[in-house]
Design brief:
This protein is an all-alpha fold. The chain has one helix and no strands. It has a domain of 35 residues.
């Protein structure tokens, strides 16, 4: 590091990149956190309530979706069976009448 003193721009404070490079030996003050009014702070209770409600709604939605899929599958299966039965009915062999046995006289 050079021995020159750091001169700030007019109207600006000097910026020291590393503490050890400060010429006056003082440390920079810690940043001050702004005070947040209580009505603007996060409330954990509605967050927990919403999280639980979201989980319950997701569970109900999953069950409803599964039931809808089961119903669609059953309807498609029945329609397929009915269509196949309709087309195959003429090809089915008709049962013959019952043949009576001859009895001895």
């Amino acid at each position: 590091m050079s021995t020159e003193t750091i001169q700030p721009l007019p109207g600006r404070r000097a910026v020291y990149p590393i503490e050890s490079e400060r010429q006056d030996g003082q440390q920079t003050p810690a940043p001050v956190k702004p005070k947040i009014p209580p009505w603007l702070k996060k409330n954990p209770f509605p967050s927990a309530w919403l999280s639980t409600a979201n989980a319950a709604v997701g569970q109900v939605r999953g069950r409803a979706t599964a039931q809808a899929k089961r119903q669609v599958t059953a309807a498609v299966t029945k329609a397929t069976e009915d269509a196949v039965a309709m087309w195959m009915a003429p090809l089915k062999a008709t049962p013959k009448g019952r043949v009576k046995r001859r009895t001895r006289k």
